[in-house]
């Protein structure tokens, strides 16, 4: 990527601080786009929203507004596409999910009416429409079952080891709570860290404190990997993906239990980089995490670390 790149060309993740584009940053443009929509000028609204997304491709509000514009124009497939992208960017957005469901319901009704017309069934008959919808639903269920069965058979025949791209988290675990509350900017930063990381499967979540600014990175510990090394890897991933942050707090979690917590400043990381020697991070970990908190350590008030903690 070019040095001046703002977004990753592969996944759209923001590469610079503030590149996500909060709603406050584009409020006036989104207002103008919505005004154009209400005035019957959908092309103008679409162009304004696309202009926002050229600068901030992860702005969920612009995606939702594009879905609204196409839903008003009765272009339901395009509306569904924009709503789906909005849900991907903001999984906790209830309005985006509700609008996507309404568009999908309209698509089902449209298909049912078209099928009834082709079969010569009077569209006034509600029973006929329900019959067509029921047949369509049965076809979808049969297709889904066939797909799942085929995928299972293929997986059993495949000799290559299965890979899990996202961590499996049990209900009620601290990792799930943190993943579910990540903001779009934090999710984009997590994607950027995983792209640079050699152990992306261990990265669980990233939470930002914009006041300093600082990050809290949660990683999953693994068997035969010292927790200090797992924490040191996360420190490297965080500072290399987001060098603008002044402090990183790293948490190592094993089986729903926090086993290590440590704080590392940007200055301490810069001073300790000389100790990074290939895959052996034991010396580096000792420099940036000289006295991390562990279950056996006593809890003391948090202070500004002089070296790495």
What does the overall shape look like? elongated
Whole-number total of structural domains: 2
CATH class of the largest domain: Mainly Alpha
Contiguous runs where pLDDT drops below 50 for at least 5 residues: 10-20, 159-180, 301-309
Gyration radius (Cα, Å) is: 25 Å
Amino- and carboxy-terminal Cα gap? 33 Å
Report on the architecture of this protein.
The chain is α+β, with helices and mostly antiparallel strands and 309 residues long. The protein has two domains: 1-149, Tetratricopeptide repeat domain (Serine Threonine Protein Phosphatase 5, Tetratricopeptide repeat), CATH 1.25.40; 174-288, no CATH class. The chain contains eleven helices and four strands, in the order H-H-H-H-H-H-H-H-E-E-H-E-E-H-H. The chain has helices at 27-38, 42-55, 60-72, 76-89, 94-119, 126-157, 174-180, 184-196, 227-241, 266-272, 282-288, and strands spanning 203-209, 214-220, 247-254, 257-265. It has a four-stranded mixed sheet with strand order 1-2-3-4, with helices on both faces. The radius of gyration is 25 Å and the shape is elongated. The model is unreliable at 10-20, 159-180 and 301-309 (pLDDT under 50).
């Amino acid at each position: 990527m070019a040095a001046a790149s703002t977004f990753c060309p592969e996944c759209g993740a923001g590469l610079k601080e503030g590149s996500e584009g909060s709603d406050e940053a584009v409020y006036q443009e989104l207002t103008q786009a919505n005004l154009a929509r209400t005035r019957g000028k959908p092309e103008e609204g679409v162009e304004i929203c696309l202009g926002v997304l050229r600068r901030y491709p992860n702005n969920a509000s612009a995606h939702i507004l594009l879905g609204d514009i196409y839903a008003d124009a009765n272009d339901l497939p395009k509306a569904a596409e924009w709503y789906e992208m909005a849900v991907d960017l903001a999984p906790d957005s209830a309005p985006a999910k509700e609008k996507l469901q309404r568009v999908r319901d309209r698509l089902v009704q449209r298909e049912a009416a078209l099928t009834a017309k082709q079969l010569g069934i009077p569209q006034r008959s509600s029973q006929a429409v329900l019959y067509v919808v029921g047949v369509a639903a049965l076809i979808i269920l049969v297709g889904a079952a066939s797909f799942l069965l085929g995928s299972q058979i293929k997986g059993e025949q495949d000799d290559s080891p299965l890979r899990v791209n996202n961590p499996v988290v049990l209900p009620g675990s601290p990792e799930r709570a943190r993943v579910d509350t990540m903001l779009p900017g934090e999710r984009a930063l997590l994607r950027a860290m995983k792209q640079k990381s050699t152990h992306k499967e261990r990265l669980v979540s990233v939470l930002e404190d914009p006041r300093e600014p600082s990050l809290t990175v949660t990683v999953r510990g693994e068997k035969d990997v010292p927790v200090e090394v797992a924490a040191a890897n996360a420190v490297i991933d965080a500072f290399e993906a987001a060098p603008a942050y002044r402090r990183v707090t790293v948490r190592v979690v094993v089986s729903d239990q926090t086993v290590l917590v440590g704080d590392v400043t940007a200055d301490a990381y810069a001073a300790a980089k000389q100790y990074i020697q290939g895959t052996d991070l034991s010396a580096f970990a000792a420099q940036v995490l000289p006295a991390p908190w562990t279950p056996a350590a006593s809890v003391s008030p948090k202070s500004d670390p002089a070296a790495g903690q």
